[in-house]
Design brief:
Helices cover about 75% and strands about 0% of the residues. It is an all-alpha fold.
């Protein structure tokens, strides 16, 4: 485990992961097995790049930390793994938002709606959920489905009443109502 730790600290992630896998294979009943699984997740976590890039390593890190949380819930490492899962979910939601916004810019409404709904369904606890709801309001107003836009604006107001995104959605709905009256 110390070799795996040293490799990890030297950003030699493949070597660290190999050392961890050897340790896990040779010591399945070790008292430090929770740390080994945690360190595996940290190796992947340290390799996560910004939201503009491929996030496949984020999913691997998420899986590793969820294993720590599920298998070793009483471990000291489960709490930190839970915090890292929140960070990873935030990254994944950011990536999803970037893709959805590009679809919205390209007027690919269905694809954008699906991506924004994915954020609200799977990443509702991230900082991107309120913006996703606002973008849904924008799209539905753009395509003329005012009732659908009002539904998302109401959801936004219920969950994020003090957010910038709720105020922006409220203004859009009011503009649409004035235009149609």
């Amino acid at each position: 485990l110390m070799a795996a730790f040293c490799y990890m600290r030297s950003n030699m992630h493949d070597e660290s992961l190999d050392a961890i896998d050897r340790y896990l294979a040779l010591n399945p009943g070790s008292k430090d097995i929770d740390y080994a699984y945690y360190m595996k997740g940290v190796n992947y976590f340290n390799q996560i790049s910004d939201v503009q890039r491929d996030q496949s390593i984020s999913y691997v890190a998420l899986k590793s930390f969820n294993e720590v949380i599920n298998r070793f819930s009483e471990s000291d490492y489960a709490k930190d793994a839970t915090e890292k899962v929140k960070i990873i979910n935030d990254r994944l939601a950011g990536k999803e938002l970037n893709i959805a916004m590009q679809y919205q810019i390209d007027h690919q409404w269905v694809a954008a709606i699906n991506r924004y709904n994915n954020i609200t369904a799977n990443f509702g606890q991230t900082r991107y959920a309120a913006e996703a709801l606002h973008r849904l309001v924008e799209i539905y107003l753009t395509i003329g489905l005012v009732q659908q836009a009002e539904k998302y604006a109401a959801t936004l107001g219920y969950n994020y009443p003090d957010s910038y995104w709720y105020k922006a959605s409220y203004e859009l709905i009011n503009q649409e109502l004035k235009k149609n009256s």
